[in-house]
Amino acid sequence: MSRRVKLIITALFLVLLAIPTVYVILTWSPPNPLRFRLVGYEDPSRKGQFRDSGKLNMIVENTSSVPVYVVWATMKRAGNPDSVADPFSQLREVYGPDDSDSMIIPPHTSLPCFCPVLQDEYPASAFENIELFYGWMSANRVKASQARIWLFLRVPEFVRPCIPINWPTHDQDTTPLLPALSARSSP
Predict the structure, then answer these.
(1) Residue 153 lies in a domain
(2) Domain count across the chain
(3) Over the stretch 12-70, which tens digit does the pLDDT of each residue have?
């Protein structure tokens, strides 16, 4: 085989290897991919896991071009006020549509979520200046984590110390709770 053919095959191989590598790098950790928007408050007449409390309904929107797996989400008043009178001075757990604390959000899509709250606990102004803290992983990072676990369970015992235990971990971000969209009146 001539030197030119070897060079062309090597270059073609490197280009084909670079395509998935660049894709994984670009989709590994998109910056601050989620937005939370207030929808409204629902009375505690709801049945299910949180039947004794009302719920603060929200929409979570994935603004990135990759699926995002939400590991956990909590909400708290911005500025860390430590007031006993303020119910949002402590962290409050946010749940997905199926009452779980994790959810998978497809790219450029919105899903409903909620935070359980006690009836009559909040005036309408209590939902201002709220921040949401959330842990998340991109779909590629989830697949890498699953592959690491699969590999760890199948390699011989003496190889297991070479496999990283806490890799890859989830990212953590903060975003403000956006106000509800007001209904526009037609002229």
Answers:
(1) no
(2) 1
(3) 999 999 999 999 888 888 888 999 998 887 766 555 555 556 778 889 999 999 999 99
